[in-house]
Design brief:
Number of strands: 13
CATH superfamily: CNF1/YfiH-like putative cysteine hydrolases
Number of domains: 1
Strand content: 15-25%
Strand order of the largest sheet: 4-5-8-7-9-12
CATH topology: CNF1/YfiH-like putative cysteine hydrolases
Number of helices: 9
Structural class: alpha+beta
Distance between the termini: 26 Å
Order of helices and strands: EHEHEEHEEEEHHEHHEEHEHE
Radius of gyration: 17 Å
Length: 270
């Protein structure tokens, strides 16, 4: 599901049917529907790359409108491919939070939007259908090796309290078709889940390995109790699709940053 680009000020985004059916406002934003100039055109969320701060702020406003929250309650961190998480209440200053280091944002306060930015790394949105608590996870290959999504799911269960019923959606990222890595990285990724090396690493004769991060993340989520029916795939290869997605692998320093976010709040499940 996407926003219509002919809507004034519309930020285009993909949605997870599973998260939507569970009552959570969320979005895997594409690069379309913002105001940033090339090469960050148009819906980019990173000032540090050289984009106009006023354009990024307008993009934040548009994303917040799409999510149905005030822009001051749309949060994300400075990501470093680690395990650090930040629990948010909505009283924090947004600009101060973005200067903090971490790769997971969490909240159980209704109306707080937890986000992560990406440009090939996998964004994962998690939610508890009972309490309304949510988490957004940034899982690049280093974070995947560290099993950041496992730690995030455990942190969300702790935040949500007894009886948590987690659901998740894995968003667009660099897929196996384009994610070519060295032998050492392939070995580390093959070993970080129960999926099995042959299931996640593809090696053709004379070529470097290609890795299926989506399958690894699904296996890691299964280890913490999320079976296939509770995990949604929101598809799209960031490297393959320059119309919809930014990609560091494709564009290097000229790449913008995508935003994925989910809003905490009581779901439709009682």
């Amino acid at each position: 599901m996407t926003a219509k680009l002919d809507d004034p000020g519309a930020a285009e985004a993909l949605e997870s049917p599973l998260l939507a059916a569970s009552g959570f406002s969320h979005a895997f934003f594409t690069r379309r529907g913002g105001v940033s100039a090339p090469p960050w055109d148009t819906l980019s969320f990173a000032v540090a790359l050289g984009d106009d701060p006023a354009a990024v702020r307008e993009n934040q406003e548009r994303a917040a409108r799409r999510l149905g929250v005030p822009a001051a309650r749309l949060y994300y961190l400075s990501q470093v491919h680690g395990l650090a998480a930040r629990v948010l209440t909505g009283d924090e200053d947004r600009d101060a939070v973005v200067r903090e280091v971490g790769d997971v944002t969490l909240s159980r306060v209704a109306g707080v939007a937890c986000g992560v930015r990406s440009a090939d790394c996998a964004p994962v949105l998690l939610a508890d259908r009972r309490s309304g608590a949510v988490a957004a996870v940034h899982s690049g290959w280093r974070g995947t090796v560290l099993r950041v999504v496992v730690e995030a799911a455990r942190a969300l269960r702790s935040l949500a309290g007894p009886g948590a019923e987690l659901v998740a959606a894995i968003g667009p990222h660099i897929e196996a078709c384009c994610f070519e890595v060295g032998e050492d990285v392939a070995a580390d990724l093959a070993a970080c889940s129960s999926a099995g090396g042959s299931a996640v690493v593809r090696v053709a004769s004379g070529a470097r390995p290609h890795v299926d991060v989506r399958r690894i993340l699904r296996a890691q989520l299964a280890e913490v109790g999320l079976d296939a029916a509770t995990v949604d795939d929101v598809s799209g290869c960031t490297a393959c699709d320059p119309v919809r997605f930014f990609s560091y692998r494709r564009d290097g320093q000229r790449s913008g940053r995508l935003l994925s976010a989910i809003v905490a709040g009581r779901s439709v499940i009682s």
